[in-house]
Amino acid sequence: MATAKDAKFVGESVLSAIGNTPMVRLKRLFPSANIKLYAKLEMLNPGGSIKDRAAVSVIRQGIESGEIKPNSTVIESSSGNMGIGLAQACSLYGLRFICVVDPKTTEQNIRLLKAYGAEVDCVTEPDPQTGEFLCARIKRVQSLLGALANSFWPNQYANLCNSGAHYWTMSEIAMDLDGEVDYLFCATSTCGTLRGCAEYICSRNLRTKIVAVDALGSVIFGGSPVKRLIPGHGAGIRPPLYQPNLAQQVVHVTDLECVVHCRALARIEALLMGGSSGAVIAAVRKCITSIPPNANVVVILPDRGERYIDTIYSDWWVLENLGEFAQALEETANYLTN
């Protein structure tokens, strides 16, 4: 067991613990597949998700540039994780933070936001023009920015500090595998992780093929909008951080597939993860027969599953919201183990 004398790093604050998350082998999910599957465990960031990286990057850049002052109010739209990351950073820096959410935001996430001292502003109706809650949230952010002096919008959908933070996520992955990464499966929402990883791969001329994992009903890659239930996966707009050709392949995943594969992760690999983690595992399953033997395959698992106990891991919620498909859950999970 390590002792205090063994410690090599003592951070200045909790924000110093962001990044350098571990990778682990996933050997049990697809036992008959001849690949090496690795998971980047982003839920081990102190705020519980990959969004900690972008949140601290945006806040620090805003302070350094003078856009954020000691009496500033930070205002952002978030379905949960970015809001929690910002709430954590704003709490440390003593900044007022207002998080604009919508009815899909889980009660656990709202409680976490408030525990950090954030103010929660919930839009109750989707945007009438687009039918999307995201557009309604952004309009509410803009209204608050106009009403509050000395306010700052991180704008996670367009801020290059978001994607820049994930340049280093990919750097960590590459260092852990000595650059030998054949496939990277990455969930998409703001496109910050996707773009940052792609830019690192390009800058180092790595052989890595990126598979972008999007929600069925998301419009990021040009699909038709369809109602989606799982927050933080996909988007109702194409974010400004999006660029063509960031990924070599795009795989769309349903809400049901997210639920099934989250439950499989928990039961087979003992990893209790959020919805987009289930999505990337579902995407691997869809692609696995086309992946060459002995390939090094990395999945980024963005957040922890405790925040989805009352949704993804609730049989009642699944029955209520996925209806006729609910009986397929156990059958699909069993198939995964064969």
Describe the 3D structure:
- This protein has 2 domains: 192 residues, Rossmann fold; 102 residues, Rossmann fold (3-Layer(aba) Sandwich).
- Helix content is 37%, strand content 14%.
- The protein is built from 10 helices and 10 strands.
- The strands form 2 sheets. A 6-stranded mixed β-sheet has the order 1-2-10-7-8-9, sandwiched between helices. It has a 4-stranded parallel β-sheet with strand order 5-4-3-6, sandwiched between helices.
- The model has no long low-confidence stretch (mean pLDDT 91).
List descriptors.
2 domains, Rossmann fold, alpha/beta, four-stranded parallel beta sheet, six-stranded mixed beta sheet, 10 helices
CATH C-level class of the largest domain is Alpha Beta
CATH architecture of the largest domain: 3-Layer(aba) Sandwich
Major sheet characteristics: 6 strands, mixed
- Uncertain ranges: none
Strand order of the largest sheet: 1-2-10-7-8-9
**How does the helix and strand content classify structurally?**
alpha/beta
Helix content: 25-40%
Number of domains: 2
Give, in order, the helices and strands: EEHEHEHEHEHEHEEHHEHH
What overall geometry do the principal axes of the alpha carbons give?
A: globular
Strand content: 5-15%
Distance between termini? 37 Å
